[in-house]
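=== RUN LOG ===
request id: a7f3
mode: sequence -> structure
chains: 1
length: 258
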Amino acid sequence: MSETEIPKLNAPIVLVPGLWGFDRIVACGKTLADYFHGIPERLEAVGNRVLVARVSPTEGVARRAADLKRFIESELPSGPFHLIGHSMGGLDSRYLAAKLGMEVRVLSVTSVGTPHRGTAFADWGVSRFARLVGPLLRYLRIPHQAFFDLTTERCLRFNNEVRDVPGVRYYSIAGQCEEDWLGAEWLFPYSLVAKAEGANDGVVSVASATWGEHTEIWAGDHLNLVNWPNRHAIRRGEWPNRAPDYGRIVRRLSQAGF
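=== RESULT ===
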C-alpha cells in the first residue's frame, strides 16, 4: 500500500467533535461550517462508512459520552466501530469505551489534540472566571461542566478512574504550532500553555495529547488538526489540506488488522 492510499476498513468510523459539539452548522439550507472539514468525504471516497456524532456543546465528559452512546446506538445499532475524537471528543471516546458497556464494540480510539492530562489554559480560565461566570450560567441553565473537566486536576482524576480497555487499540495525534502560524486569537493561550507544559497547538500541549501505543505530531493550531485552514499559512502558500492526514490514521488501523 502506498503512503497516500487510503484503505477501506471493515468497520465504520465515528468522528467525535470537541467542545461545542456540532457536526455541521446549517442556515437557510446552506452549510456554513463542518466540524471535520472535508474529512468524512475523503474517507468515504474509498468506501468507508463515516459518521459525525453530535454531542452536548458544553456538558461534562460523562454526559457527552452518554450522548455519543445514544447517537451510536441510533445510527449503528450493532457491530464494531472505530472512534476518532478531536479535543474533548477524545475523552468522551475513552469514557464510552471504558464506562458505558460499549467495550465489546469499540475497536480503537484515536484522539486528536486531546488534553488527556488537561490544559493549563483551562486551569487559568476556571481559576479566574468560575466564581464570576458560573452563577450566571447556572441561572441561565447553560451547562458548563466541560470547562472544569478539561483542567489538569480533573483530568488526573479522570485518568485514575477511566482506564484503557484491554483489547481496544489507542492511538493519538498531537499538534505543535510554530509561532509564525499563530493568529492573534491563539497568542495568549499558546504562551500560557508553552510556559507551563512546553510545545503545544495553542491550547493543548504535545505532552498532554500523547496517549496510547503511538503518537504522531502534526504541525498546526488546535483547529488546523480538524482541517480548519490557517490563514497565515495560506497567505504564505504553506497550508496543507489536513484531510489526507486522516488517511494515515486509517492506514495505521488497516495495518493493525482492521
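=== NOTES ===
The chain has a mean pLDDT of 89.
The longest helix spans residues 120-139.
=== END ===
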